[in-house]
Amino acid sequence: MATKTNIKTSSVDLAKRAKMDLRPGNTVRGWQKIQEKGKVRLQAYEGLIIAHKHGSEAGATITVRRVASGVGMEKIFPLYSPNIDKIEILRSAKVRQAKLYYIRDKAAKEIRRRMKKIAGRPVAEKEVDELVAQVVEGIETGDITATPEEAVAEETKE
To answer: In CATH, what number is assigned to the domain containing residue 60?
Structure first.
């Protein structure tokens, strides 16, 4: 007599995750389980899917990009990880490429455009790059003493 045993290897509903229509261009909110001091909490990360890799196999991942405080951040979500509670599709967009890595460069151009607008005058590309570097350096070190508008105003006074 043969007995049948069911072994459940993961708490993730694999069929449900495989059916999700996760494509580059979609805006998603991923809920990740984070364990702190014995408690488990959920943390949301919302952004644009710029890449979907490894198809529907066990190691499938999506790369989600968002811009917070002027800094672009990317997070890689393993689709079938038990640490990912759920993934919600907020918005879908039709794109013509499988990988949207060009969005990274597009964001840098947007920062330059905004800096030119803040300055209110034509600014050399080198000056804009220096302003962006100062802003990014201030964010990384926490030494933000002035807003970008004030920094530009000081630059124009000199």
So the answer is: 2.30.30.790
Tens of pLDDT, residues 74-96: 999 998 888 888 889 998 888 88
Q: Summarize pLDDT for 147-156 with one digit per residue, the tens.
A: 555 545 555 5
Backbone angles phi, psi at 148, to 5 degrees: -55, -35
What tokens appear for 70 in the block?
Answer: 């002027």
Tell me the backbone φ, ψ of residue 87, rounded to 5 degrees: -130, 120
Together in a domain, 66 and 93: yes
Structure token digits, residue 130: 């220096």
Q: What is the pLDDT of residue 119?
A: 64
4 within some domain: no
Dihedral over alpha carbons 139, 143, 147, 148 (to 10 degrees): -60
Q: Are 74 and 65 in contact (CB under 8 A)?
A: yes
